[in-house]
Amino acid sequence: MQIREGATPIVHDGSRTGVLVCHAFTGSPAAVRPLAEHLVDEGFSVRAPRLPGHGTAWQDLDGTTWTDWYAELEGAYAELTERCDTVVACGLSMGATLSTLLVQRNPEIAGLVVINPVMRTKNLKFRLIPVARRLRSTVSGIGGDIKKDGVSHDAYERMPLRPLHTQAQLWHRVTRDLPQITQPVLVLRSRVDHIVAPASSQLFLSRISSTDVTDVVLENSYHVATLDNDAPRIHEAVTDFTRRVAGNA
Fold first, then answer.
1. Which of 17, 21, 56, 142 has a C-alpha 20 to 30 A away from that of 31?
2. How far apart are CA 156 and CA 144, in angstroms?
3. Structure letter (DSSP) for residue 193
4. What pTM was computed for the model?
5. Facing residues of 48 across strands?
6. Are 141 and 118 spatial neighbours (Cβ–Cβ below 8 Å)?
7. How many CB atoms are located within 10 Å of the residue 36 CB?
8. Cα dihedral angle (220, 98, 23, 53), rounded to 10 degrees?
9. How many CA within 13 A on the CB side of residue 34?
10. For 146-207, where are the alpha helices, taking DSSP H only?
11. Long-range contacts, 215-221 (Cβ 8 Å, 24+)
């Protein structure tokens, strides 16, 4: 198993404020590395784990489930809690879903950042999972939804259907318990997203119980916004949000 370039986990011990950054399905830490490195430069302790089956080859993803991915995120969170007084969870797409579950199960987390979260989807590839998984083992990948010229997202070219099906199970579990979210929340969502429909962010916003909610619409990025034109805006927003909820704004 050879780890792809840029896909290694990001581990940095800085201040007593920590940020846990989670990548998306079929992606790797490479997609959130610019954000994570910015947070490192700002002095925070940072963890950006590589989820099981990711960042190598799509064949390694087959056989994993959402519980495997979540366990890796929990492990990274445990590392941060050993040295940090305050932790903020942050995720992109499915990483936002996993981060939301982490906050649901660990209410002591100070804040939640979701970037183009996936809680439901009208994407035909996802909707056909129950039927397609009986007929074939993979479908073509959905990575690369980036508006910025010359930037690529090194996601898998194929998506195994078995782990994709378990992701749908994760969505159900997380959306059911969204009212448990009471922490400050920062939502960063692209105006145009060819992977996840606006209904996903709208569902998230409509069901959480948080009263401290910042909703930012990204006008110049597609789904993988962390690598797109609005990346500097995301960096600034996540930094400011983290400092504020940690009480050192």
1. 17
2. 10
3. -
4. 0.93
5. 10
6. no
7. 26
8. -140
9. 17
10. 161-176, 198-207
11. 215/187, 215/189, 216/186, 216/187, 216/188, 216/189, 217/189, 217/190, 217/191, 218/188, 218/189, 218/190, 218/191, 219/191, 220/147, 221/146, 221/147, 221/148, 221/190
Match 């610019």 to its residue by tokens.
34
Residue labelled with tokens 């992977």:
195
Q: Could you tell me which residues are beta bridge partners of residue 89?
A: 20, 112
Amino acid (one-letter) located at 169: Q
The sheet that has 185-190: what strands, in order across it?
Answer: 10-12, 45-48, 17-22, 86-92, 111-115, 185-190, 213-218
The residue type found at 183 is Q
What residue type is 65 in one-letter code?
A: T
Q: Give the span between the Cα atoms of 237 and 35, in whole angstroms.
A: 11
**Tokens read off for 111:** 């804040």
Specify the DSSP element, H or E, that contains 38.
helix 33-41
Q: What is the pLDDT of residue 150?
A: 87
pLDDT at residue 181 greater than cutoff 60:
yes
- Kindly state the tokens that stand for 183: 């922490």
- From CA 137, how far away is CA 144, in angstroms rounded? 22
Question: Catalytic residue positions?
Answer: 93, 193, 223
- Compute the Cα dihedral for 161, 162, 167, 170 and give only its sign: positive
Q: What whole-number distance in Å separates Cα of residue 29 and Cα of residue 69?
A: 13
Contact 23, 121 (CB under 8 A): no
pLDDT at 210: 98
Query: Taking residues 175-203, what's their average pLDDT?
Result: 95
Cβ neighbours of 81 (radius 10 Å): 15
How far is the C-alpha of 162 from the C-alpha of 133, rounded, in Å?
7
